[in-house]
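Hi team,

As requested, here is the filled-out complex form for the adenosine-5'-diphosphate run. I kept the field names the same as last time so the parser does not choke. Let me know if anything looks off before we queue the next batch.

— J.
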Amino acid sequence: MLFVQVLVDCPVDERLFTYTWEGSIQPGDGVSVPFGSRMVGGIVVTLSDQPPEPERPLKSIESVLHRGFLPPAYWHLLEKIAHHYCTPLLYVVQTALPTGLLNRNQRRIARLEGDPSKLTPPALQLWQHLGTYQQNEVSWRALRKQFLRPEPWLKELESWGLARSYLYSPPVLRPKRQTMVSLVLATAATATKRQQAVLATLQHLGGEAPLSQFLETAKTTRPTVQKLVEQGWITLWDQEILRRGDSDLPYPKDQPKTLTPAQTLALSQIQTLTAGQTLLLWGVTGSGKTEIYLQAIAPLLAQGKSALVLVPEIGLTPQLTERFQQRFPGKIWVYHSALSLGERYDCWRQMLAGEAQVVIGTRSAIFAPLPHLGLMILDEEHDGAYKQDRPAPSYHARTVAQWRSVLEGCPLVLGSATPALESYHAAQTGRYQLSHLPERAGVHRGLPEVTVVDMREELHQGVYAPLSRRLQQEVQAMAERGEQGILFLNRRGYHTFILCRSCGEVLTCPHCTVSLTYHETDHILRCHHCRYSRPEPEQKCPACSSVHFRYFGTGTQKIESAVRKLFPALRVLRFDRDTTQRKGSHRQILERFSRGEAELLIGTQMLTKGLDLPQVTLIGILAADSLLNMPDFRCTERAFQLLTQVAGRSGRGSEPGRVVLQTYSPEHPVVLAAARQDYLQFTLPELADRAELGFPPFGNLVSLGWQGTTEAQVIQCAQEAAQELSQGAGEVLGPAPALIPRLRRQYRWQVLWKLPPTIPPQPLLSHFLDKVTWPKGVTCQIDVDPLQLW
Ligand code: ADP
Ligand code: ZN
Ligand code: ZN
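And here is what came back:
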């Protein structure tokens, strides 16, 4: 008899319960177990032949629904993540699995086992509808299609076990959850019979359906659906149909290109990687990295293996996805968190069944359950989007990929024009293989020429506009040549620093050489690494006594109106968080721009990723300074990466590119290196600095943050923790107020714990957490290997 700990999918805090079982069973198996009066789904976590203490009566597992639901190597990966990031295994499982896989609804688990023939008839019908729809699509542009689904509250109520008949019947209140239920029932009672029938059909179809098909199936009309939307019953949204690519598509199948000698060498290095090895493919923007990925994957598919390709953001890299689809028609699965639950779920099902060959996805796709993984690729590996902020675990996809590479015996390729310092250092010290592509591939494509403009000089000449005279000339010339340009601006709403526009002086912390952050509420400048703070300076620069001394930060909107004033004849598009709120709208803006509907695009750093627009020959970087003065030791690295990536968007077609980089500190090492687009000029001295300070990759970091409504309590927690941690190994920075010291009425303080590279944070961190307790009302957030300040 075995004693089996099962992760039970039920809304209770402690979800590990012990059951008995006779016969074979493995961690990662999907089971059904009795829980209260019901049967629920669960996953086997551990096995033991000893009964738990204290002895008590145990129930038995009802049945094993799916053997190897999560294969052993995959299970070990999840355990490793839980351990390293100090997160309960449950949260890791929830992060990895799409919602609804580990579900109270057992039928869903059962559905996973087999082929579509096991689907319930309506689900099968919907599945087929979707399938046919995708196969018949031949249009070149992105396809959009309207879908509908019930409002989340309906689903939620159903999950509480409120039957549909109950929901749609007149109000009968229960003691608990009274307000929510009564509110809903008040609404529900207003649904007409006709509407109820329509809703029932939607539920019957699996909860989500494409609008056009739904109208047919439910024998209803658009106005009825519209009415239901207005009354808050269902949501209507339009979504991109991700084409699988097909032989019918109106473009010829893309053929492999003849590789350049540098590309050939890189490809052979990839092909000789052994299990668990990592190769850093460092190639300037446009050097043909994607072409190498494609050619590395092709032979794997012939061997029946699969490949996983991660990108920082799928919406901004449609071209990459398209190139894969053209090269491997019908073999590409796209997986990211913007998919609807149903889509994610179906995608998983196919991946587990071994149907997916190449999966392209964002961070969470690192959990794609591909059975015969032959290669993993992380493109733009330096990108911060690979690190999850919240919810826990705050994992980094690159770290997870490395573990997975070892556990599943599959090589890993990291591609970037500006590798993360960690990655470059690993290549330098032989932990990674290194392959370098120093030149652009294809026809006569030099890197763009970068001009640095000293904005202090502009001020002295009486030019107050956000565009320097040089940039204005370049915009004029670009427009006359009939080409396009992008104006780039970095903006982080919450962060302000103080800069002298006459001499470029920035107020920095005397202890940490990071810029001080201005806090408007109490007129204080603070360092977010240590506890240093100082009052707001007089309205005069301490270095040169100029009065052009001020808080920095200009929005894209301001720039837009300035540009319209300067160039009334130019058509301008704006691309920032405000204009891209709606799903898919960033893609629309980019499409309009690439169709030539505007000469100028103004945008924030969202614009930097993987854009390949051949007509763009001018890039203006309006204020490099806000990049250079973030209160964080990684700020220079990010600034260099951003500036290089932005510059790389220029001159990707047949015309040479130009970049104008405006700054108040033209002598800043990052500006100098970025102007030459010289990665090593920036990286080597920066690594030396990091080594001296013991920051990554020459040390391990853990960030601990506390928040609560009583400031004194929060500070006390941070102080006690700092005290406790400083007894042991490593060094403690802080306590200091968090980057956002007060958020939603909660005070926030942080401590940064720095360990030598030889000492991993675990198990020290767990021991520490076992010893300490926080008062009620204070929560602690832990980020292992943090990329951002809290
Ligand atoms: P990266 O991924 O490094 O930015 P890409 O693979 O996108 O580079 O290549 C940039 C451009 O050069 C693309 O238009 C691509 O089709 C082209 N290209 C890549 N390799 C070759 C080659 N060997 N011969 C001709 N063109 C190439
Ligand atoms: Zn000054
Ligand atoms: Zn400091």
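Two things worth flagging: Residues 500, 502-503, 505, 541, 543-544, 546 surround zinc ion (ligand 2) (CB under 6 Å). The two ends are 48 Å apart (CA to CA).

Thanks,
J.
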